[in-house]
Structure formats: structure tokens, C-alpha cells
Write a structure and sequence with these properties.
340 residues; alpha/beta; Nucleotidyltransferase, domain 5; 2 domains; 5-stranded mixed beta sheet; 9 helices
């Protein structure tokens, strides 16, 4: 029997709704929130208010684009966490209410599992290469930096994670220190393309195993800029491309070296990349190069699936629902979820 899923994602500052039929994506609508730019970061209260304003129009647009009606929906899926609690409450409350109104089952999804399964998103008639199990996924975003072994669609093992800050947070901090605006990652990536990645050296933390640390790197940049600006007030403007290129190069080399180590220690050569930082051009390039050097099969996500989106929540819900999982309506959204 054909199953149509309406998926809702509201973990941070993007409101998204998607329609999937038998695991194939029919629509994926997103609404961003420009209100946070002037604050240099996401303001939780403003985010939750914007979700309340956006969620109904986004769901209606997803249904319209998919060519289905509410009566065609068989399952409602939503992000339970991790994320901003106020934002999660908006999405989960809407999903629960709609589930009751339509009399259809509810499936909650771990936001991170959605990212991990994003390589399996495809539209009807689309032939996209997909990884085989088990595979390694490097999940890199503003809130998470992890290397995860994906045994099957429902089973995951965290092999390494950041012990302090995430890589995406380091990119944002870099941009903020230089007055480049928010979100910082895309700006740093763009400016780095015109810079010399070997011009400046930044401290690489020594962390055992497969874990990461980026707080020391942020501090290294802070002191570097402070000292250079004392010597020459116009230093940042005169060297912004080289600073971005060198800082980005350092982050990417840390990430790729750990992924190579993980592959060698596990023997797994099916490699995927996910999360918002997976849109970074240098990281994508270096992953592909490492793949050629190490005999990997690499799967890079389409740019539309790198950021938080409901399509990935829908594909995760597809596997959970197919395995017989159903969510109780008394489940509360959670800002933090322990490792899978």
C-alpha cells in the first residue's frame, strides 16, 4: 500500500515541510528567518515566533507543490530534537494537532538521523548514487561535529565528536571577529576562494582518537587578529581573503584527517558528508580528493539538503515507519538528545 508522509522540520531558524510518497520526495519547502542577521546569531524567542508565522503557509505550499491534499496524508513526521526548544515546540505541536485531526499515525525523528540519511533522498525517476551499509558519515554543522558509523537506517554509532565547539560555530566566530556578518560559513567560504590558504598558520589542537576540538583554534584566531591589528589597524581589511582561506584550510584539514583515520580503523570505505558545513566548497573538494587517495566511494549531498530541511526528516520517518515505529502523542520535544 502506498504511504504518503508529511514531514515538518523546525529545530532552529528554518521552517520546512516536505511530502514523500513511498520514500520519494514530492516537495520540500523552506522559509528562512532574516531577522537574526542583525544580531549575529539566532535569537531563540524570535525564532519560535517566526516558526508560528511560517508553519501553516509552508505546509500548504508543500501540499500544493506535491499535488496532494490533507486527505492523502497517511503519516505525520516531525523533528523531536535536538534543537532550540521553543522552535521544536512549534513544529511538534503542529504535527501532533494535525495527526489527531486527520486520525493518522505520528513519527518523531532525531534531527541528526535525518542528516545521516539525507543521501537517500531522491525524487521519482531520479537515479542518485546511494551508499551501501555500513558507511561512515561526517556530520558537520553549527551545533555538531561527529563521525558516525551508520550500520543500517535505524542503527548508528558515534565514533568521534567535538569535545567543545562545532566546526560550524568556529566558522561563524571567524566571521564575527572580522565583522563579516552572520551566518559566517558561506561568507568565509566565498572570500577564501580569493585567498592563500598557506599564508597564515593557526594552532591545530591535539586530540586523541577520533574526537575534535575547535575552541583552541577560535582562541588562536582571536589572539592573532588582536596582535596584528595592534601593529596595523587596517590588517583585517587588507588580508581578509588570506585570513579566511588559512582559517578554513585549518578546519578542513582537521576534519579530513580524522575521517581518514576513522576509515582506516574501521575498514569502511563508503563515505558520506552531511550537515550545513557540508556545503563548504573546500571540504567537499578535500573529501573527494581523499576518496581518490584512499579508494573511497564518496557521496556528497545536494546543496538543497545540506541545511536543515524537512526532506531529511521525511526520509528518516519513512524508514522508522516501515520498521513499525509509531510515536506516542505525549512525547515532549527535547533540546538535547544523547548519542543515538
Amino acid at each position: 500500500m502506498s504511504i504518503t508522509i508529511l514531514a515538518i522540520e523546525s529545530s532552529c531558524d528554518d521552517t520546512s515541510a516536505a511530502i514523500l510518497n513511498d520514500g520519494y520526495l514530492l516537495s520540500n519547502i523552506m522559509a528562512g528567518q532574516d531577522v537574526h542577521k542583525k544580531y549575529g546569531g539566532v535569537i531563540p524567542e524570535l525564532a519560535s515566533r517566526a516558526h508560528q508565522h511560517n508553519i501553516l503557509p509552508v505546509v500548504e505550499a508543500a501540499l500544493c507543490e506535491a499535488g496532494v491534499s490533507m486527505a492523502d496524508i497517511d503519516v505525520i513526521a516531525y523533528t523531536r530534537g535536538p534543537g532550540l526548544l521553543g522552535s521544536l515546540i512549534v513544529g511538534s505541536s503542529f504535527a501532533k494537532g494535525l495527526s489527531v485531526a486527520l486520525g493518522v499515525p505520528l513519527v518523531d525523528v532525531n534531527h541528526l538521523q535525518g542528516h545521516l540519511l539525507s543521501p537517500f533522498i531522491s525524487q521519482p525517476g531520479e537515479e542518485r548514487p546511494k551508499p551501501t551499509f555500513p558507511y561512515l558519515s561526517m556530520l558537520v554543522s553549527g551545533g555538531h561535529t561527529q563521525i558516525i558509523k551508520v550500520t543500517d537506517p535505524l542503527n548508528y554509532t558515534v565514533l568521534g565528536k567535538t569535545i567543545d565547539d562545532a566546526a560550524g560555530e568556529a566558522f561563524d566566530k571567524c566571521a564575527k571577529l572580522m565583522g563579516l556578518g552572520y551566518p559566517g560559513g558561506p561568507v568565509v567560504d566565498r572570500l577564501a576562494k580569493e585567498g592563500n590558504p598557506l599564508k597564515f598558520k593557526f594552532a591545530k589542537p591535539v586530540v586523541k582518537g577520533l574526537d575534535f576540538s575547535f575552541s583552541g583554534l577560535k582562541t588562536s584566531l582571536l589572539y592573532f587578529l588582536r596582535d596584528r591589528v595592534k601593529e596595523s589597524p587596517g590588517f583585517i581589511n587588507e588580508n581578509v581573503n588570506d585570513i579566511c582561506a588559512s582559517f578554513q584550510h585549518t578546519i578542513v584539514e582537521i576534519l579530513v584527517s580524522k575521517l581518514i583515520k576513522a576509515s582506516r580503523s574501521t575498514g569502511i570505505k563508503e563515505i558520506t558528508l552531511s550537515g550545513g558545513v557540508s556545503a563548504n566548497s573546500l571540504l567537499r573538494k578535500r573529501i573527494e580528493e581523499a576518496g581518490l587517495e584512499n579508494g573511497w566511494k564518496t557521496y556528497l549531498p545536494a546543496f538543497s539538503y545540506t541545511t536543515d530541511n524537512a526532506a531529511m526528516i521525511g526520509i528518516a520517518a519513512h524508514y522508522r515507519y516501515s520498521a513499525g515505529y509509531r510515536a506516542e502523542h505525549n512525547l515532549s520535544p527535547v533540546s538535547r538528545i544523547k548519542d543515538f
